[in-house]
Amino acid sequence: MLPKFSHVRPSSLRQAVQQLASSGSHVHAGGTDLLGCLRDGVFGAEKIVSITGIGELRGINSREDGAVRIGALTTLSEVATSPLIAQNYALLAQAAAAAASPQLRNQGTIGGNLCQRPRCWYFRGDFQCLRKGGDTCFAINGENEFHCVFGGSRCYIVHPSDTAPALVALDARAHIRGPLGMRVVPLGSFFVLPALDLARENVLRSGEIITHISLPPLAPGSISSYRKVRARGSWDFALAGLALALKLTGRRVDWSRVVLSGVAPIPWRSSETEKVLLGRDLNPRTLREAADAATRGAEPLSQNGYKVELVRGIVEESLRAIMESHPETPSERT
Question: Domains along the chain?
Answer without folding.
Answer: 222-328 (3.30.390.50)
